[in-house]
Design brief:
329 residues; alpha+beta; 9-stranded antiparallel sheet; 13 helices; globular
Length: 329
């Protein structure tokens, strides 16, 4: 995990820092209060930045090359790209600009969070055909619920996935990669984009049989320790991602990624039961190794599945004890 921090009242230094951290840009205007604070946490191709400007600053920037999501906490940002004037205020989460286009606007005494990741991840999550790219076609999420969902996904990354305690348990990057895929899926769920079409085909329905489920389950169970996606699961069968989704819904009453979470929860349970009494193993470390960053959510899911808190299971090693699914003996 890499971190950096910038705090300066020098506009030239701020411009140089922003150009190095994001993309070449020029700050126009000379405000009286020039203090700017920026912090960045970066891991596994994901960066989350906290920015605070006490003044109005105009910017004119080149292409970012990243999906750049902004969550406003105070003040406002005005997008003036291509002559428009679109204002974003507190509580809004939005796409700052397409990854392959320059952009310009104003930051007006604002405090906000920037979250960035590789745009190719959208293609991966959406399972679009090779050679095609998913493009976001609007800056704002579709409706208030979309805004809440996207903001919540970013807050989860910022406050739970990229904190030092979570990062210390994520040696192979599973936790971060899983969370970034979730963010990309939330972007596709909440923002308008070119892949938002119903691509259902008869072949998908025909392939959604029990053998597809069996093969997909076998692949998931053999690879749950890795960062795997729906596209990889489908390729292992091989069928389309949509066919795998149909197979799980029809024959298992869940989704492929829902089953993956279930398998990872079971592996965490086995690891907790097998832990020594020395205290070297912690619940947080086990949860992190299996892609669970939020300890409260992990504990709730664990209690629902096994009837006890994970801390109760830790080190017990009691076959047939109360830490079986449903909490029964």
């Amino acid at each position: 995990m890499a971190q950096l921090f910038f705090d300066s009242g020098d506009l030239e230094a701020t411009e140089a820092f922003l150009s190095a951290a994001y993309t070449p840009m020029q700050i126009t205007g000379r405000p009286s209060d020039t203090r700017a604070q920026i912090s960045r946490t970066e891991m596994g191709g994901l960066s989350v930045d906290r920015l605070s400007f006490g003044y109005t600053m105009r910017y004119d920037a080149d292409c970012l090359g990243k999906v750049c999501l902004v969550t406003m906490h105070s003040g406002s940002i005005v997008d003036t790209t291509d002559g428009r004037e679109e204002v974003f205020g507190p509580g809004e989460t939005f796409l700052l600009a397409p990854h392959d286009r320059p952009y310009e606007g104003q930051v007006r005494a604002a405090r906000y969070t920037i979250t960035m990741f590789d745009p190719h991840l959208l293609n991966h999550v959406a399972s679009v055909p090779s050679g095609k790219d998913v493009r976001i076609t609007g800056a704002r999420p579709v409706g208030p619920d979309g805004n809440r969902r996207l903001g919540a996904a970013i807050a989860y990354l910022r406050d739970h996935v990229l904190d030092e305690s979570a990062a210390s348990t994520d040696d192979d990057g599973l936790l971060v990669s899983t969370a970034v895929q979730h963010l990309a899926a939330t972007v596709l769920k909440t923002l308008p984009h070119t892949a938002r079409t119903d691509r259902t085909a008869p072949r998908d329905t025909r392939d959604a049989h029990s053998d597809t489920l069996r093969r997909a389950v076998a692949f998931i169970e053999a690879n749950a320790h890795r960062d795997i996606t729906l596209a990889e699961i489908a390729a292992s069968v091989p069928v389309t991602p949509r066919a795998v989704q149909y197979a799980f819904t029809r024959h298992a009453g869940t989704t492929p990624l829902g089953h993956l979470r279930r398998v990872r929860l079971a592996r965490a349970h086995d690891e907790l039961r097998a832990a020594e009494h020395s205290g070297a193993t912690t619940v947080a470390a086990v949860a992190g190794r299996w892609g669970f960053a939020h300890q409260g959510r992990f504990a709730a899911a664990y209690r629902q599945a096994y009837g006890v808190a994970p801390s109760v299971t830790l080190g017990t090693g009691r076959p047939g004890g109360t830490d079986r699914p449903g909490g029964t003996r």
